[in-house]
C-alpha cells in the first residue's frame, strides 16, 4: 500500500466496490437513463465509471477514470466489481475487462477488440459493425419499446399527380415548431432555384397554424391549404402545400421524396422530433442542429442513418443531393428503415443477457 492510500487520497467513493459497474462516456450516459434504471431495479447496486472528461450529476455512485490506461485498469482492480458492463467505447478500453476480474458484457460495441477479451456477451446496435460473433440487439439507449403504427393513404398521395408527372420533387418540412418555418422557407427558396419542386409544410401545434400561414404570405409563393383544396390534384404551379391537421401530417410521409424533421431546426423548438414515422415509410430524413440529445435521434445520428445539418447550408446540401441522386436517397432510406426495425425492444433484449 502506498503513502497516498495510507493517507486516504486514493479512497474509492462509497458504493463503487462490489458494484454492477457501467463504464461509458458522457455522451452515452446522457441517453442511458432507461438502461440504468432497469439495471438498478434488477441488481440494486449500479455504479458508474466515466472513461472521458465528462461529468455526472445523478444519484448513482460515480468515478472518473484516469486517462492513462494503466491507471484506469488499476482503478478497476481496486473496485473489484461484481459485474462489468462496458457501454459503447472502442477497443482501447479492452484492458478494463481483464483488470475487473469479473463477468463482463460489452454493449454497443464499436470494433472487433470487444470480441477478444472474454466477455459473456457482446452486442451491437446494427448489422455490419465488424464485431465477430456479436449479437445484433439494437441500441438499448434509443428508447424504442415498440414501433409506431404508420398511416398510408393512396388517395392522399394522388393529390401530387401533377407534380409527379411534371418531374417535380416533393420535400416535406414536417412537424415544424417555434421559429422554424422561416428556416424552411429559406432552404426551400434555394432548392427551387436549383430545381423546381413543391414544399409541404406542416406545423406541429394546431394553435400555431393560422399565425404561421399569415406570416408566410410575405414570401409571395403560391400556397394551397390542405383543408381548402377544391380540386382533385394540387396544381403544378403550387409552390407550398400547407397542412394544418394531424391526420395528413402523418399520412403525407408516404407521399414525399424526403423529410426535414421539424423540432430539429431551431433551439426554440419544444416538441419531440418524429423521425420514426418517415423512416418507417421509407423516406430519407434530414435533421437540423436542435434536440440531438433526443434518444432516438441521437442513436440514429450515431448509426449514420439520418442526414444531419448544422446550419441551413448543410441542410440545403443534403436535400440537393437527395433530389439529384434518387439511388442514394433510396439506399439511405432502406438502411434507416432496416436499422429502426432492429431497435424496437432493444433494452429488454440487452438486459436479458446480463446475469
UniProtKB/TrEMBL annotation:
This is 3-deoxy-D-manno-octulosonic acid transferase. One of its GO terms (molecular function) is Kdo transferase activity. Pathway: Bacterial outer membrane biogenesis; LPS core biosynthesis. It comes from Sulfuriferula plumbiphila. InterPro entries: Kdotransferase. It catalyses: lipid IVA (E. coli) + CMP-3-deoxy-beta-D-manno-octulosonate = alpha-Kdo-(2->6)-lipid IVA (E. coli) + CMP + H(+). One of its GO terms (cellular component) is plasma membrane. Belongs to the glycosyltransferase group 1 family. Keywords: Cell membrane, Lipopolysaccharide biosynthesis, Membrane, Transferase. Its EC number is 2.4.99.12. It is found in: Cell membrane. The keyword Mitochondrion does not apply. Its main location: membrane. It comes from the Bacteria. Involved in lipopolysaccharide (LPS) biosynthesis. Catalyzes the transfer of 3-deoxy-D-manno-octulosonate (Kdo) residue(s) from CMP-Kdo to lipid IV(A), the tetraacyldisaccharide-1,4'-bisphosphate precursor of lipid A. One of its GO terms (biological process) is lipopolysaccharide core region biosynthetic process.
